[in-house]
Amino acid sequence: MALQEKLQKELDAECADSNRIPGAILFLADRKGDTLAHVASGVRSVETKEPMAADQLHWIASCTKLITAIACMQLVEQGKLKLDEPVESIVPELGQAMVDDGSGQLREPKTKVTLTHLLTHTAGQSYEFFNPQTCDYFKKIGAKPFSSSKKTITAPLVSEPGTKWEYGTSIDWVSQIIERVSGTDLDSYFKKHIFEPLGIKSMTTKPETGIAGGVKARLAGLHQRGKDGNISATPHLIQLDESKIEVQYGGAGLFANAAEYCQVLIALLNHGTHPKTKAQILKPTSVDELFKNRLPENLVADLDRPFEAAIPEISNRFISLEGIAKQWSYGGQTTPEGVANGRSSKSAWWAGIANHYWFMDMETGVCGMIQCQILPFFDPYVVP
C-alpha cells in the first residue's frame, strides 16, 4: 500500500468519530522537496460539518517560533544583530523588566537579557497557561492569553536571566527586536525575506489583510475537549480583529497550512536553500547555528520538568518527550541521542498550543507537520 493511501486510511479512522479528532491534516516531504504524503480528514468545524480541506489554514501558534528564529538569524548574518549582546538598547522596556522569583517581591535582574537568552527560553519569561505565578499576574491585570495586547508580554520575569529554562513569551520579544531593527512590521518582514522567496502565499500574522480574501474564510475552527472527553466548537484564542492587534506575536501569531509551512523545513533540510525555488533563506552556517544544542549542562534537566496545567482549558500537564534525552536550540527541541520511533540524533521539532506539530530530520532528510486545532494541548488522542 502506498504511503499516501496508508496514511489517508489511518487518518480517516482517527477522525471517524468527531469526539476523538474532529479534523486533521498531515503533510510529509523529503529533502528534494517532493511530497511524500498530503492527507486531510474529518471536518473543518464540528459546527459547520464542512470537510477539512488539505490546504485549510490553521492558527499554528508556537510553530511560529521557528520562523521568527530564522528571521533573527538573517539579521545576525547581516551584522544587524548580535546574539550575545544585551538587547535593551533595542527594546528598552525589556531592560526595565523586574524579577519575581516567587517571593512576591520585585527586584532588578543581575544579568542583562541577550538574544541568546530570548531564543533559548532562558530570559526568565513564562506563559500564563504553564506557570501559576504568571497566570495569577495576568488575572490581576486583566490580560487574556493570545489577545495580542502588549500586556501579554510584559509580565515580571520568573527567574534570573540565564539561570533557568522556562518556556514562555521570549520569542515575542525577538519579533519586537526584528521589527525595530528592520524598520518594518513582522508580517511584512516574513513575507519579503522568507515566504515570497519560497513561493508561500497563505502564511500571515494578519487575519484580515495578510492574504487575499483574508484568513477567516479559510480558517479551520478551534475545538475544545471538555472534562467529559467530548469535543465542541470554541472561539479562537488568537485575536482575529486586526484593529485590536497591538503585538504581532513572533512566538504564536501565524496562520498557515501544513504544505506551505513545510516549504520552510525543506529549505532548512537543504542547509538554507530550497531545492525547487533555489531561494536561500539562510546560509549553511546559520542553519547549523539554528539547530545547535544551546543549553548548558546545568539547565538541561529543566527540559524534564513538567509543563503545569495552570489553565487546564488551554493545556494538559505533560512532560515533553518523557524519558528521552533532549536539548534546546534556537530553532526548537532537539534529540541528541535520537528516538526509538525513528527520529535521528539530528532531528528537531516543536509544536503549537492547538495540537500542531512539526518535525525535521537532517539525517533522514524528511520533514512534516500535523494540524488538528484542538484544545487543550497534548491531547491524548493526538499524542497517545
Automatic annotation (TrEMBL):
InterPro entries: Beta-lactam-related (IPR001466), Beta-lactam/transpept-like (IPR012338), Diverse_Enzym_Activities (IPR050789). It comes from the Eukaryota. Pfam families: Beta-lactamase. Residues 14-373 form the Beta-lactamase-related domain. PANTHER family: BETA-LACTAMASE FAMILY PROTEIN (AFU_ORTHOLOGUE AFUA_5G07500), BETA-LACTAMASE-RELATED. This is Beta-lactamase/transpeptidase-like protein. It comes from Acaromyces ingoldii.
